[in-house]
Amino acid sequence: MTTTTTLRPTDLAEVRDAVRDTPGRLAVAGAGTAAGWAGELGAVDAVLDLAGLTGVITHNPGDMTVSAHAGTPLRALTEELAEHGQHVSLDAARIADGATLGGLLATADSGPSSLVYGTLRDLVIGVTVVLADGTVARSGGHVIKNVAGYDLAKLLHGSYGTLGVLAEVVLRLHPVPKRTATLVVDAPLARAAELAARVLEGPFEPVALEWTSDGRLLVRIEGTDEALPARVARLQEVLGAGATTPEGDPWTRHAELTRGAPDAAVLRIGARPSLLPALVSELAPDAATAGLGTGVATVSLPPDAVADAHTRVHAAGGTSQLRSRPVGADAPAWGPPPSALAVLRAVKTALDPDGRFGPGRFSPWM
Questions:
Q1: What are the domain boundaries of the chain?
Q2: pLDDT, tens digit (0-9, with 9 covering 90-100), for 244-280
Q3: Considering the entire predicted model, what is its pTM?
Q4: Does the keyword Glycoprotein apply (predicted)?
């Protein structure tokens, strides 16, 4: 990436002025926790570093909503909201690394609890965005003002900074659960998928249902101090005698596998949950996590296996994107173009007609 200047706005007006007054191509930077994801960023004339664009703007505990600047680390926001017994129901692995609200939305990152709470696409109810000509556009949240009929919050989800500069986010909150429990059972992937199906068919309401390539099925449930022990006991009956509630946090290892090893290429794939176990097995990853209810998996592969993996996922009707690659590795970020490519190009043309934002992120598609 070749750049000539770095701009560090600290409020919306400065973001607007930076976009309006800076000619050429621009990139947006946050905490850097996903800097290597998707397509490699091409040459830009300036970088907008949003590390100083932080903090809560408004918090309405009664309405269970919060608005915050896009550069706010979700970890810091979680600590602030905890005083009110509320949180943003997102548990992506890189939150612990300092990932920001804007970065999480731009990369469409999610975690195991998306099984129940959805992704940020579901949790974000409003955004403020600075478009390529310096226009400040608001969608949803406290001020409902769509731009040319677009739902900006949903368009920005997974856009990798290619449509505009996300400045502010309005989020739907949930109560912090009174108590949580995770049951772990040793099981190969096929067996774990069978057990997961039983859990989903029952009255257990799992918040997360994940398999790891260590050969373990993790089932997380939430509840009250009074009700949770009985629910755990009933769940153990379904999972079998080997199901335990281990000491320590079993999700730490899950997060490690999600991040992947530095010498591996990490691919995020999505498929119908019923097809995911067979697809993950077919890819034969070195390490993996698989959401048996969400249909989302993260697999670590040799870089030279990525192109074939993209093709296999696409043939199964799924989606895939590169999350990280070893330095110097030639691994394609994207597979075959999606059927909605014409729509993606049309949106890009409408919001960023001169192609100012994030060149290369969706290469070779556009």
A1: 6-175, 179-253, 260-324
A2: 999 899 999 999 999 998 899 999 999 999 999 999 9
A3: 0.94
A4: no
